[in-house]
Design a protein that fits this description.
7 helices; binds manganese (II) ion; nine-stranded mixed beta sheet; 251 residues; globular; 13 strands; 27% helix; alpha/beta; two-stranded antiparallel sheet; Stationary-phase Survival Protein Sure Homolog, Chain: A
Length: 251
């Protein structure tokens, strides 16, 4: 099995290395990852600027790797379109930080998995609930292994990308895997205003997340209780229930 590993934190991120190490147990791994951090880029693609692919020996001679000047979605496109390496499985992450609820819309980690799903490639995004670049990924690696064994034994359809979030706990305190749905919530944006050396103001976005959903079938509930959240995503953003409602009221 050929496995493409990508991420949004960049090719030198420890979470990517942690994922590569586990992926190696399952097949022939290659890496296409951004050459710089791309968190929060969502599903952006590069139009009007050149895209570059730099071969990298960062994972040793047995794992071909490329640093890409573009976004996570660009990485997937270049892997299949330029390198001609269509994977049997695409893994993205392990992200340094959570990707629950509406974070899916902002996440570069998940955009790589969703891009894979667009192309009919079974795709899974992994995130650890720890934003530190020095985070300990040892428990997360064991969870990735467990999720992949489950996933490969009972494959989801290739157009259903999985969003896996892992609590930042020792392995002995992680209570197991739960299939979840995306909780409703929002970011409350706050901006820190500062002044640059030329006297011009600039702003740091330092929002916090507010959950609006306490139900026990959500990703947030599972993570708060110490479970791994596995949320199957939809590519189709059409509001089908509203369409049905609309058709009913038109009659
Ligand atoms: Mn990230």
């Amino acid at each position: 099995m050929r496995i493409l590993v990508c991420n949004d934190d960049g090719i030198s991120a420890r979470g990517l290395r942690a994922l590569v190490e586990v992926a190696q147990e399952f097949g022939q791994v290659f890496v296409v990852a951004p050459d710089k951090p791309q968190s929060g880029m969502g599903h952006a693609i590069s139009i009007g600027v050149p895209l570059r692919l730099y071969p990298s020996s960062i994972f040793g001679s047995s794992i071909p790797a490329w640093a890409c000047s573009g976004t996570p979605a660009d990485c997937v496109k270049l892997a299949t379109g330029v390198l001609g390496l269509r994977p049997d499985l695409l893994l993205s992450g392990i992200n340094h930080g959570a990707n629950f609820s509406i974070s899916v819309f902002y996440s570069g980690t998940l955009s790589a998995a969703i891009e894979g799903a667009f192309e009919g490639i079974p795709s899974v995004g992994f995130s650890l609930l720890n934003y530190s670049m020095e985070a300990d990924f040892s428990a997360a690696q064991a969870i990735v292994r467990e999720v992949l064994l489950m996933y490969l034994a009972h494959p989801f359809p290739p157009h259903v990308p999985l969003n896996v979030n892992i609590p930042d706990l020792p392995l002995s305190e992680i209570r197991g895997l739960r299939l979840t749905r995306q909780a409703r919530g929002r970011f409350i944006e706050q901006f820190e205003k500062r002044i640059d050396p030329y006297g011009e103001p600039y702003y740091w976005m330092v929002g916090r997340f507010e959950s609006q959903d306490t139900a026990s079938d959500t990703d947030i509930w599972a993570l708060e209780k110490g479970y791994v959240s596995i949320c199957p995503l939809l590519i189709d953003l059409t509001n089908h229930s509203f369409l049905q409602h609309w058709e009913a009221v038109q009659r």
